[in-house]
Amino acid sequence: MLIDWFTVGAQTLNFLILVWLMKRFLYKPILHAIDAREKRIAAEIANADAKKAEADKARDEFQHKNEEFDQQRAALLSKATDEANAVRQQLLADAQQAADALSAKRQESLRADAHNLNQAIGRRTQQEVFAIARKALSDLATTSLEERLGEVFTRRLREMDGATKASLAEALKTTSDPAVVRSAFDLPTEQRAAIQNAINETFSVESRVRFVTEPDLIGGIELAANGQKVAWSIADYLASLQKGVEELLKEKDKPETKPKPGSPST
Questions:
Q1: Are 145 and 134 in contact, with CB atoms under 8 Å apart?
Q2: Contact, 203 vs 228, CB < 8 A?
């Protein structure tokens, strides 16, 4: 069989032309389209990855903010609880302090009332004792109680100890004001003269004396000059008696010591 080289060459040329044409007008556009699609897909994947990364970042930030919010909420709640407890404790302390102050004030008021009552009872008792003593001396003797008290006072002036006597004498000599004699009753003229003479003779001075009546002295006489004072009063004896009675009452109020079981009794 003879080969038609012209035909072979023409077919080969036609094939090559077909290949070139297909490559030029078919394969290249397809390849470009494939490349473009791959690039577009890669860009979309990259965009998706970027969006996913942003979403992950936003999610992490959201979680972080939630954690911070939870921490802040817990801190605020703890702080509010501590402050509420502190306020509660302060209110309780203030209430306790107010209650203690009220109780102390009430106890002090009760003590003051008791003290005032005791003073009133003591004063009334002294007054009653003085009145009874005055009535008894008036009934049993020819001398009134006032005269007897004046005599006792003048005698005490003359019997004063050296230091007290010297101090009062100095006060009488250095003052320009008259000495003051206070008594619980109005002294008769004779009594005033006797006390004036006793003062002048006892302290070797010519002192002016002003007599003042003060019922609060409760049966007593007091001499005062330039801050110095000497006094005698039935209240002194009553106070001593009252102190003795109070001591006896305290001894009586002491709880008795009970003997222990099994110990020998005395």
A1: yes
A2: no
Q: Contact 169/203 with Cβ under 8 angstroms?
A: yes
Q: 23: helix, coil or strand?
A: helix
Report yes or no: 158 and 202 within 8 Å, Cβ to Cβ.
yes
- Please check whether residue 175 is in contact with residue 207, taking contact to mean a CB–CB distance below 8 angstroms: no
Alpha-carbon torsion (158, 162, 164, 165), positive or negative = positive
Tokens of 78: 């703890």
Task: Report DSSP letters for 208-229, one per residue.
Answer: -EEEEE-GGGSSEEEEEETTEE
- Which DSSP state fits 204? T
Question: How many CB atoms sit inside 10 A of residue 84's CB?
Answer: 10
Is the distance from CB of 186 to CB of 213 less than 8 angstroms? Answer: yes
Has residue 177 got a pLDDT over 50?
yes
Please count the CA atoms within 13 angstroms of the CA of 230 that sit on its side-chain side.
Answer: 21
- DSSP lists the bridge partners of residue 179 as 209
Q: What is the pLDDT of residue 165?
A: 77
User: What does the block give as tokens for 188?
Assistant: 């008769």
The residue among 217, 214, 216, 212 whose CA lies nearest residue 177 is 212
Residue tagged 């009872």 (tokens): 121
**CB-CB contact of 221 with 183 (8 Å):** yes
pTM here is 0.39
Instruction: For the chain, report the end-to-end CA distance as a whole number of angstroms.
Output: 168
- Give the tens place of pLDDT for each residue, 3-34: 677 787 778 888 888 777 777 777 777 778 88
